[in-house]
Amino acid sequence: MNPYELAAEAAKELKQKTGVNKFDVAVVLGSGWKEGAVALGEPSSSVLTSELTGFFKPTVAGHQGQILAVEYAGLHVALLAGRVHLYEGHTAHEVAHPVRTLIAAGAQKIVLTNACGGIDPAYGPGTVSLIRDHINLTSTSPMEGELPPEQYGSRFVDLSNLYDADARARIQAVQSLPEGVYAGFRGPHYETPAEIKMAKAMGASLVGMSTVLEAIAARHLGAQVTGLGLISNFAAGVVPGGLNHLEVLEAGQKAAATLGALLKEIIPVL
Fold first, then answer.
1. Phi, psi (5° rounding) for residue 255?
2. Does the annotation count 209 as an active-site position?
3. 92-104 vs 212-220: helix crossing angle, rounded to 10
4. Who's near 260: CB < 8 A, 6+ residues apart?
5. Each residue's pLDDT tens digit, 59-96
């Protein structure tokens, strides 16, 4: 099966297992965000992604591999806890598969969250930033390979309004947030201070190892994309000291209440 048929099959299975015929919104929960998402309420169902066609079990601490179905503000919301990454040995299509599945299950509004490094010293750990745009430094794309089937449109996707400007404006009306440009690297190693200087010179204020491929795949399928980055640490060289993944998880735990309140405000206005 091609990537789109795989996503359609997984979506059919997801709808059967959750009892939700059509999702309205999907949220991809980055490191630390699942703790905040509990504020949306008790899930009506939970599906292990390992039970769905084309999914892989995450290998990163803090990524469990579940899709939770929650009804909030009259909307059917799918919460993906457990994205996979290029650095786990996956292809761009495999990284994009969960988002393609959620869209095939009806969700035309996609919220991509992550934990990221902050390049701007004015915004420290614990800050949530809207993603205004991104720089894809992964050297790959979910549009590579065979042509998409005709009904899915051209592989030459217009990304000029990738992170929807109208959605950002609606979010800013209920919650004032800084906005930044996210530089997506392959990882899994953290960036060097020189690479951070390069990213800053290119216009980036956030840096991480996810999101960009999912965003491209979602936009190709016509979904409205919103990006939210929890700054969990300063990027290499911004302040003295080293980096480790534990501080990323700890930042998410400390910010859980804030993240939950933010999601509750944002989802109804998307």
1. -95, 5
2. yes
3. 50
4. 35, 36, 37, 38, 39, 40
5. 765 557 899 999 999 999 999 998 899 999 999 999 99
Stretch (H or E) spanning 72: strand 66-72
Positions in the chain short of pLDDT 70: 60-63, 241, 243-245, 247-249, 251-252
**Complete domains list, the chain, with CATH:** 3-269 (3.40.50.1580)
**The one catalytic residue among 204, 210, 223, 255:** 210
Which of 170, 65, 199 lies closest to 111 in space, CA to CA?
170
d(CA 219, CA 168): 15
220 Cβ contact list (under 8 Å, min separation 6)? 142, 143, 148, 152, 153, 155, 157
- Would you state the structure tokens that stand for residue 251, as one six-digit string? 């930042």
For the beta carbon of residue 92, count every other beta carbon within 10 angstroms: 22
Candidate list 10, 92, 209, 256, residue with the active-site label: 209
